[in-house]
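**Protein record**
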Amino acid sequence: MSRRLVMLFALLVVLLPLAGPLAADEAVRLRVLTYNIHHGEGADGEFDLPRLAKVITDARPDLVALQEVDNQTRRAGGVDQAAKLGELTGLHARFGKAMDYDGGQYGEAILSRLPIVATANHPLPHDAGREPRAALAVQVQLPESEEKIWFVGTHLDHLRDNSSRLAQAKEIRRLFAPADAAEALPNILAGDLNAQPQTPEIKHLTEVWQVATDPDGNNATYPAEDPTVRIDYVMAWPADGWRVVSCEVLDEKVASDHRPLLVVWEWVGGKS
């Protein structure tokens, strides 16, 4: 090796550690997954958290919203499913209780590759006799940025009458996309909203949130075997702060009764 090449190699060794993983003009992207896991029970009747963890891991998400999550219930064998899925995937895990159920709790979970700096669980309004619902939110800092965002996972009322769902959508909008938005953080909202796009509750949310859509129209997520309806969503606020890079319903028919939805977002609202 010539003396000149040796000097060049030595210079590169010194300079490479100084370069950050994200160039100054490179956009911040987040891979976001939402998945109703049917309390861990697959379409084959098996409770198989390692199978669910593999679905999640294979999608390489940064943020995951999970619905129908059991925490130490009898039907799930007393397992803290959020903690176990966090362990199996290597992601930070948080659970948000919607209600007490079967000797334990039932609600939402969030998994995050990014460190979680704050957590809040918000009960949502519901009509008498309906299941309680909640919106679980974690605050994270975007990679290589000073920008913090909320990631919100939720599961709206499942009954046909939309009165509870509309009230729940209004509360989520009040909490995370208020009319006076000066102090509100950007956010991503994900979950099983139990409503199709033309319903009042979805229209109420998409007045201010940008909803991710597959340009080829492949948006149906339920039932998993042969999806015919779109009830799972990933949205971002403010609408002009984010760009959809891709949106894909994953081809997974057995691990749950829903298919997972994976969206890649690009933050365009500003760079630190």
